[in-house]
Each structure stands twice: as C-alpha cells, then as structure tokens.
Specification:
By secondary structure, this protein is mostly beta strands. The protein has one domain: Sandwich (Jelly Rolls), CATH 2.60.120.10. Strand 20 and strand 21 form a beta hairpin. The chain is globular. The protein binds manganese (II) ion. Manganese (II) ion binds next to strand 6. The site of manganese (II) ion has 5 residues, from strand 6.
C-alpha cells in the first residue's frame, strides 16, 4: 500500500456556478477497497474538507479486517466516522480510543502526529459502506501548531420531517456539535425517506455524498461513489430518493481559499513542506511524529514523485 494519495494534488480549482456531479474512483487503502470521493478532478476542497474515502470492501463474505499501521499526518484533522463495526484508534499522543458507529474521532495533526487504526469488531453486514475517513484542511493560523485528539460519543441529533441528521461538525438548525474545527465547516450524517429539504448556510459551499443509494440533488442524479457539489449562495437544498430509507453525508464550509497541496498523508502549501515531513517520517523523527502504541507495522512512505524525478536524472 502506498496510498492514500499517490499523486500530487495541486493546481487551481475553478469556481462553481451550478450544482455539479463529480465522479470519484475506486482505490485501496491497506487492502480495503475504498470509494475516493474527494479529491477529484479539478476539485480539492469543499469548504475545508479535502479528502473523503468511503470504506467499501465490496460484496465479500468476509471483508479483510481494517489494519492500518502507524503513519503520519500534517496540516489536517482526520474525521473518522463509522456506519458499521468498531475500530481502535491509537496515536502518538498516547491515545487509545475505540470508536463505534455514531461517534466521531477527530485527530488534529498541526505540525505532525502519527496514528494507527485497527478493526476490533467485524461489521455486521458484508456489503456496503462501512465508514468514512475524511480530512479537514487546517488554515495557516493553526496548521503548524499543536496536535490534539477529540472523541465525541454524544453528537446532537436533529429531527427532520422525513428523517434525521447527526451533526458531526458545525451547526445545523440552531444546534451545534462540540467538535472543534479550525475553519467554518459543517458535516452531517443524514437519513431520510422520500424527500427532504434542508436549509443551507448561504456562505458555505457543500457536497452531498450518497452512502447507500442513488440520490437526486435538486435535478442532478448522484450515485454511490460520486458527490454533488453545491456552490455557495443556496439557501435550501432538496434531496430525493426513490427506493427506501437513504443515508448520505453532507459536508461543506466557507470556501477554503488557500492553495493546498496534498501528497500521501500530508496537506501543505509547498512541496518543500511535504518533502520535510516525508524526510522526518523516513528518519523516524520522534520529535515531529512520535511513536504510536500499536502492534501493527509502521507504514513506510513511498518516494515523492518530485524526488524520484531528481534521483532519476
Ligand atoms: Mn490516517
């Protein structure tokens, strides 16, 4: 495994005029199939959200256990959100935290942190999306700062006329999650039947991420593995489904602004910053990333493509 991000993600991202459907792609993280919804073509961020993987091992009788050994992060917060099973999180702060569906593990990397994730309880079902691994980019004010970890088991649940919404981060219908993020953002886990119309913060851009079936977002059809991007300026959003109780994630926030560069597990602004973090991980720099209390083997970093290009000369 060399993922998550094998390619350097950079370059400008065009503004959004209308609701736009973006197809994700299938990838593999530690032997587990994922649907990578973000980043995608010409779109790196939705608000501060910069990475969304849906864990989707496929229709296997026995999906392989989640075993992602110690690996580093910089410049982002990881938001782990499960739909099934349970996972033990360990990190270089010394944290060991079991997470179950409906709970949030929010790990803010700042200048550097390392963590591991190990499946403890096998999923009850052997198909569908088991959970989401999402990253929230940190702004310049905090991205070189301290790392920290939060676990939230009591996130607010808001009733909708045809379903409900769990508030992962941000606020919705006057109710706020206590999870601390560094840039204005929202993250909801919604279920509904038939159709739902939800209020949006008009200064936020949003994405609707289906979790179990095709949805209609205003007039656009969005399948599992894709997302509907909704530009800022919308006051409400109408979402429909035709085949039963639907589940989806709604993410968004104030457009991030900064020109993020992402490679492997790092979010930064320049290649030099990524190279420095890569070297620190290669050199087992415990001042920057620290040891992780985990029995799993450490994940070694591949060589960044821009270093490989120099070495090949
Ligand atoms: Mn990670």
């Amino acid at each position: 495994m060399s993922g998550p991000l094998e390619e350097l993600i950079e370059g400008s991202q065009p503004g959004l005029g209308e609701i736009e459907v973006k197809q994700g792609r299938a990838a593999d993280v530690g032997g587990i199939g994922v649907l990578r919804v973000l980043p995608t073509k010409k779109r790196r961020t939705v608000g501060p959200w910069c990475f969304v993987d849906l864990m989707h091992p496929g229709d296997l009788a026995e999906p392989p256990p989640i075993e992602i050994g110690p690996h580093p992060h910089i410049g982002l917060a990881t938001a782990t959100w499960l739909f099934d099973g349970s996972v033990l999180h360990s990190d270089s702060l010394g944290t060991e935290q079991l997470i179950s569906p409906g709970e949030l593990n929010l790990m803010t990397a700042g200048r550097g942190i390392a963590h591991a994730e190990q499946g403890i309880e096998a999923p009850a079902v052997s198909s569908g999306v088991l959970g989401a691994q999402m990253w929230i980019a940190q702004p310049d004010g905090t991205r070189d700062g301290a790392h920290h970890f939060e676990h939230h088991a009591d996130l607010p649940l808001v009733d909708l006329p045809t379903g409900h919404a769990r508030i992962i981060v941000g606020s919705f219908e006057g109710v706020a999650s206590r999870a601390a993020v560094d840039h204005p953002a929202i993250g909801l886990d919604m279920t509904f039947e038939g159709s739902v119309e939800i209020p949006l913060h008009p200064a936020f851009e949003h994405a609707v991420v289906p979790v179990d079936r095709t949805l209609k977002v205003q007039d656009a059809l969005v399948e599992l593995g894709a997302m509907a991007l909704v530009p800022a300026g919308h006051q409400t959003l109408r979402i429909e489904e035709r085949t039963g109780n639907a589940r989806m994630l709604l993410i968004g926030g104030e457009p991030f602004g900064a020109d993020v560069k992402m490679w492997w597990n790092f979010v930064a602004r320049t290649l030099d910053e990524i190279t420095e973090a890569w070297r620190a991980w290669q050199d087992h720099d415990d001042d920057r990333f620290g040891p992780v209390p985990s029995k799993l083997g450490r994940v070694e970093a591949p060589t960044p493509p821009w270093i490989r290009a120099v070495e090949a000369r």
